[in-house]
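Blackboard transcription, Thursday session:
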Amino acid sequence: MDRYWRQMWGIARYELRMQWRRGMLRMVMFILPLASVLVIFLLAGMQAQLSASQTQWSAAYPAEFRLTAMAIFILLPAAAPIFAALPLLLAETIPLDGKLNMRDTLDSTPLPLWVYLAGKVLGVWLGVLIALVICIPVVGAVFYWKLGAFNVWVWLQVWGAVVVPSGLLSSGMGVLFAAAQPTRRRAILVNFLLIPVFVYLYSVSPLLQVTVLASLAPEQAFDLDANGKITALRLMSGDVMALSAGLMVAALAVAGLLAWGGIRWKAGRA
Amino acid sequence: MIEIHNLSKTYAGGVQALTGIDLKIESGMFGLVGPNGAGKTSLMRILAGLLRVSSGSVSVFGQDMGTAAGKQTAKALLGYLPQELGFYPTLSAREFLDYMAILKGVTDKRLRQTQIEQLLEEVRLTDVADRRLKTFSGGMKRRVGIAQALLGNPKLLIVDEPTVGLDPEERVRFRNLLSGMAKRCTVILSTHIVEDISHSCNDLAVMSKGRVIFRGAPAELVQQARGNVFTVLLRDEPPDGGLSVVSTLQMTDGVQYRVLGKPDGRYEAKPIEPSLEDGYIWLMQHAAQPTS
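(Written on the board underneath:)
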């Protein structure tokens, strides 16, 4: 197992390096913060209307309360289209090996297929994680500028529990779903089919629903300290986290099986 | 040892690539020669565990290539240089070899680095090891290819048409490199360039239309054409009468043809010593019945 893990980690390191040098990772790093900021600008226009409709509770709670709810409310729909686009950007990750005539060389090694697939996904995840880590301060700064002072700790919890896992789910599924496709074009076309699947998974995610609820009914959502300051997202319980993580693992497992089966089937026909 | 018994391969479209191949390959350098489309690459890919057999059996160092477990074990023992060589253009030669070594299971970093440095030295690429592969010439890429095939100290090295696209100097260097490898592992060299075989192999098979039509030493193949190779000096038209022209040389007093066959009385023909190429061409023209 130690050998498989080392092989997987080796593939991941080189995949990250190759993605960076091909420019794909740089594109993801550039597009993610840029698209986030653009969507924030668009959605921030809703602030006034939302504030007007929430005057009843906004009068009863401090500004931090209202702004934190607003920051969460804007962040989640801002992230969705970006993550829906990730499978298209990363579709060629595995088909590119075929295009570069690497298939025979790779298949002549004693590397198990599942280790190869897992290494590729891990490499892409490292890239997406780096991109998201760059995103967080950029998007946070824009939020501060457009909305005002919100509770950063709670906002980071939403990143950690919803946004980052969704990014990993989307990119991982994007890599695996297109793995058996022979060309880059076919891979991108196939991953277009993945977009509604991902949007559905994203929208049924219990964590997403909980956080949307938090933004709509914040009086039930936040734990407060004695001074009325927010300390945590109350609804982000262990059960909800486990359910979301389970859904994510199941979705990735299905995509992984499709990739494994597709590549095996193609090899079996030869 | 590699044992192939009654091997046949038919592709999904119904194309029969191999028919009833029987071969035993011992250590040293083994040549597999034949025209394009003879089935050499199909056979190489089966030996490398990349293609399934349609019928018959293949055993590589006792591992049955018809089973997944056998294939997996055998792959750990082999190095493969495919005909269509692939690379990651954004990686340097050193990075590419490191990546391939990881895939081959050389997970110890120090061991990997030692092996890579040795192989880079062996294929004379140490000076350019940190250059990206997209800047390499065809010959340099081939040398990286052979280095990757040798990672992990394989017991069996399969090289498929390795000298295609190389200049004469590179070809000689490559042949010498393979000959050196044959001292430490079994090398199977597949080619349609007879010259590659004549300089390096002491055992060979000739394939045609999916069958093995000759198996033996190069001298035995040369023997096939003995007494049937002549030079003929003519002033105008090339020779006819069932003679095959192997080469043509412009002379001051006419054109000297090297021919295969039995010249009739019209020509003043001089018998000469056949080469391996003569033997090969003679065989391709006259082999009617397959041998094993």
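Lecturer's comment: The first helix of chain A runs from residue 2 to 22.
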